[in-house]
Structure formats: C-alpha cells, structure tokens
C-alpha cells in the first residue's frame, strides 16, 4: 500500500494539484501558502504560474522548505491585514478542529482571494475512504489526524460565515490514475477559489 501510494499516487497528485491551483491564481498575485509543508506544491505552482510570488507559513517549518517560510502557531497568521492577494490552504483545514478560525484569519490577511484544496464527505463511505487516505499519506509523518471532513453544505456555510463567496468550485480533480481513481476519486476532492466579500 505504501509503495503504491508513493509511486503511482503521490507524484501524480502533486503535479495535478499544482496545475489546478496555479490556473486559478491571477497573474502577478502575491500568495501565502498556509501550512505549506516542504513547499513542493507551492514551488510547482510558481513554476506553472511564474508571474506570482509565493511564501509560506508552517506550524513546524522544515529547513529544506522549497519556498520562503515563517513559523506560526496554527491559529494567528503572522502577516498584516490585507497584505497579500491570495491566501491558500492545501489539505490543511481538515487537519484542524477549528477551520472557521483559520478561515477568518485568512480573510483578514487576504486582499481579495482564498484558494482551497480539501475534501468533501457526504456519507459513511466517503468518510472511511478519506480516513484511509489520510492515514496512509500522513500517519508516517506524525501529522495530527482529526479526520474533520465536511459536506459541501457545511463548507458553503463556513465560507459564507467567514465572509467569502465561492467563485469557482472544481470537484473533478484527476489526482489518481486508474484504477485508484475509481475508489479514491469520486468527487471526494475539491479546489475552490473564493472571493472576499465586504470590508
């Protein structure tokens, strides 16, 4: 399982994610990758969209991070209000018990957009599939796994409450090759571009 995930899934997932995310970021934008990990996805986004500037923050920054990265406490984003064009979460929000708090912080820091890649769980099978994927992909790295997955309706409520409007929602992200896609795809993943509403 681990070997299959590392070879057939991980490399493709990173490449497809970077392409999907890069296509939604406006040219020339300044981007903050919140929970950037080792910066691999962010560095590929910058390669695919070279007009942007991108930096990261991470609870446990890695010396080998591929983008400039600052530490943060997992709650308070260490940037001024309205200081960046786009805030981005890539598979981060389902790892926190308080996604609404991070969404509010991202709204404070972003001048205009929020870009999110995360999961949708509408039923028991969705939940168990996502739980398995999370365990295989993250448990070996010591990542906290609260399995805090949301339905589309719950996501929409979070976004609205935080002051964002969904501009674009993509749930056909081709992260996995066949035959993995038949089980691990199924619209369990989304990439959404949100726009900040009001002041």
Can you give me a brief rundown of this structure?
This protein is α/β, with parallel strands linked by helices and 199 residues long.
Note the main sheet.
Answer: 7 strands, mixed
- The CATH superfamily label reads Vaccinia Virus protein VP39
Along the chain, the helix and strand elements come as HEHEEEHEHHEHE
Strand content is: 15-25%
Structural class estimated from helices and strands? alpha/beta
Give the overall silhouette.
globular
Tell me the distance between the termini: 48 Å
Structurally, the number of domains stands at: 1
Number of helices: 6
Taking all Cα atoms into account, the compactness measure Rg is 16 Å
Key structural traits:
about 200 residues, seven-stranded mixed sheet, alpha/beta, disordered N terminus, Rossmann fold, single chain
